[in-house]
Amino acid sequence: MGPMPKKKSLTLQRVLVLLLAYIMLAVCGGVAASVLFVPGVIGANKAAKAVIPSLKVENVDFDVTSLPQKSTMYARDGSTVIATFYNQNRIVVPLKKISKTMQQAVVAREDRRFWTHAGVDVQGVMRAFVQTYLVKGSQQGGSSLTQQYVKNVLLMQAIEDDDSIAQYHATEDTIARKIREMLISVQMEKKYSKAEILQGYLNIAQFGNNLYGVETAAQRYFSVSAADLNVVQSATIAAITKNPSLYDPLVEENQKESENQRNIVLKLMLQEGYITQKQYTEAVNTPLKDTLKAQDVNVGCQDTGDYAYFCDFVVHRIQNSEEFGKTRAERNKLLQEGGLKIVTTLDVEANSTMMETARNTIPPDDPSGMEIAMAAVKPGTGEVLSFGLNRYYDATPAAANDPTKTSQNYAVDLADGGGSGWTIGSSWKPINLIAWMEAGHSINDNLQTSTSYPTTDFACSNYSGGADSWNVSNAMGAGTVNPESPFLGLVRSHNTTQASMGAILKLCKVADTATELGYHDAATGETIDKTQVYTPSMMIGSVNVSPLTMASIFAVYASNGVQCNPIAISKVTDKDGNDLKVPSANCHQAVDKDIIQTLAYTLNQGTVRPDGAGWSFRLADGRKSFGKTGTSEDLAVSGGSFIPNQIAAFAVVGDAQNPYTNRISNIAINGRYNSYWDGSTIAAPAVTNFFNSYISKKKIPIDNDYGQPVSKYTTTGKYLGIGGRTFSVPQTTTNGNSQSQSSNNQSQSQNTGQNNTQTQGTNSEQSNDGQ
Predict the structure, then answer these.
(1) Span 530-584, pLDDT tens digits
(2) How far apart are CA 95 and CA 98, in angstroms?
(3) Per the database record, which ranges form the Glycosyl transferase family domain (predicted)?
(4) Which residues contact 127 (CB under 8 A, 6 or more apart)?
(5) Of 239, 270, 290, which residue constitutes the final position of a domain?
(6) Rounded to the nearest 5°, which phi and psi values hold at 389?
(7) For 526, which of 339, 519, 531, 601 could close a Cys bridge (C-beta 3.0–4.6 Å)?
(8) Alpha-carbon gap, residue 511 to 489, rounded angstroms
């Protein structure tokens, strides 16, 4: 016998032919050049890998480990999933976390010579070329897994760049596109290992309707991870990518064909020796529908149930925070593609309880049309715990015709997806008492009060007053109590005393105190001291503020004076496990502890004294209670309370969209008629009911030591007349710990604020302001 034929070597002639093929491709392009790139010209795979020059595509990142991934939002426990966000539903996993059978299934189906070719399957291309162009049969693909990966990356990059031309070129059905993919694929295989390319393909390929990557597919179809996929499951998933819409096994009308395609993959796996005959027989005889165990995937906030309002709040915070990108577009992209793990401050028990409380207080379909908006925060941290609204979240157009649904969270600021604010009436008054003590006064000073004050009495650097007067009175047209202390003025919720305090303090001091407590306008985000929008009636709550802002202010009362900005995000980790910077609560000591303790004492007395206006805040089991109600004419009623160092909450009731048309008086709410609704009849009870239920669920221990008055601020003080002149007269006392329920002491005063979508009114508006 003659000598065995030698293995063909890479001759200079063959290299020149390959190089010429590349040059002709670059110069000619299109069909003419494609003829030169048939397998006969390419020669051996190793030759192709060795001689094709380096090809770089600008602005395209072919890193097989870097892909857009879905972000997941969690509750504060870090495990309860609130929502997921993605443009492409994908969870990237390394190859070692994808089962061997899944790897084998996709190789058998898509590219059986994957492990031996150099990026281009020569035999596959030859077969496709002959079938398509010489035999003139059906069009064949012949694309290797590497080529398919390249195509997906080019398309993804074009979509992210919003480049319609690039998107067209990435998907056009031409030989030019195929050859471009071939050239890049050869370079891919020079840079990356086979395992890396397979890993990239398995993470980028589409395996269903907006379902990308095998990990997402494994969870969606079978409720398992990709690492645990068995033979049947792997074959099912591998079959889908040929036609994701027609082979989706969860679509009932697709299941017959999906099973047929699965069996084709199983046959290919048998032919390649990946499975045995026994495995094949068992697998093809297994009904597809018996293998499915679908897992629902909630996208965005729309389908997250009672988490939706909190979810929407977090999304707005991400969109508005520079920590997540310089522009809103960058922040949205990070949320949709960054593979973030977002741990929020949501307390699951608090949120479920507050939503339930809101709907029990006013059913969503209540004929009154009234809304209740509630918010709760954790004192000393700024952490937003929950929201409560008597509506169902719906961001679709259908909500416009359904009054029980809305996507607007009326518990938060306009910038955070809420309304333009609510008027809160007497719920503002604790701010006045803090300002009073900060100015060096005692809560037992006795004030001369009046029902009419020249607006110039309140003048300061940012407010000059005018030629008019502010007419103010107390409950149901009652005149005034003269003299009266700031202590009793808050316990009884008397407006005339607040007016007297304002005339002495001046509005600038009250505005400064409100700012240090965290007050800002719900529509503009501006503080009073910056906007210079002053009116004497702000002393009794004629402001536009969100329930969340007020809950945060009551949290200052609950944490010995520590003020924190509300935060909804505690931790964000990117897809590489790195912690990202999140917005800070900026917690700091804003008010002296002794002042807060004295305020807390006063608020508690309002719940226990016979003449107190806060009786509806009394908690179960003898727990010490604190709170303040507010009534803004018949536009809105409110109430805020707290459990020291545990939780602070605030609620507002009214018609958020039409407060002047649909007033909260002479109506039935939840089957109960009242000619006059105030904070103590609906808002405060809602907060109290929420607290009692939350306390029971959380088993919060009773601690009744909070709220110890400090003598510096309770010493019997001076008699101060209008304008602050001092007179020496007998003093009143403030002692009294009666547990009996007070009468429905209410007050009437001027109130110029409006609610939510309305703008602030004039000083001619009268309001009943008390409980």
Answers:
(1) 766 789 999 999 999 999 999 999 999 999 999 999 999 999 999 888 999 999 9
(2) 5
(3) 80-269
(4) 140, 142
(5) 290
(6) -135, 145
(7) 531
(8) 19
